[in-house]
Amino acid sequence: MKINQFGTQSVNPYQKNYDKQAVQKTAAQPQDKIEISSQAKEMQHASDAVAGSRQEKIAQLKAQIENGSYKVDANHIAKNIINFYKKQ
Fold first, then answer.
1. Does the UniProt entry include the keyword Nucleotide-binding (predicted)?
2. Which 8-state DSSP code applies to residue 1?
3. In the 3-class helix/strand/coil scheme, how is 18-33 assigned residue by residue?
4. Does residue 84 register a pLDDT over 70?
5. Is the pLDDT of residue 85 over 80?
């Protein structure tokens, strides 16, 4: 008995259909798409502007702490703590 490639296709005729379905499934999958509204873009720009000014304030506070010139107002902190607990 001689085995060659000419007679092997009839052994599994369903494989061709299975392969075609797999190719069609991968080709037919839709791609994700995102659209950002103009209002969301404006909000992002505003957020970036606030973050930039906040970074400047943080840098100033770090410099004051390193120099030893940063002073904590204990009375102001105590008043804020009392006001916080009075509201609750």
1. no
2. -
3. HHHHHHHHHHHCCCCC
4. yes
5. yes
Answer yes or no: pTM beyond 0.90. no
Mean pLDDT, residues 55-81: 94
In a domain, 63, yes or no: yes
Task: Let me know if residue 21 belongs to a domain.
Answer: no
Residue 77 counted as domain residue:
yes
Residue at 39 is within a domain: no
Taking only the tens place, the pLDDT of each residue in 10-36 is: 566 666 666 666 666 655 567 788 898
Give the structural domain span for 71. 50-87
- Which residues are CB-contacts of 61 (< 8 A; sequence separation ≥ 6)? 70
- Look at the chain and report how many structural domains it folds into: 1
**CA-CA distance, 64 to 70, in Å (whole number)?**
5
Are 49 and 55 within 8 A, CB to CB? no
Rounded CA-CA distance 49/44 in Å is: 9
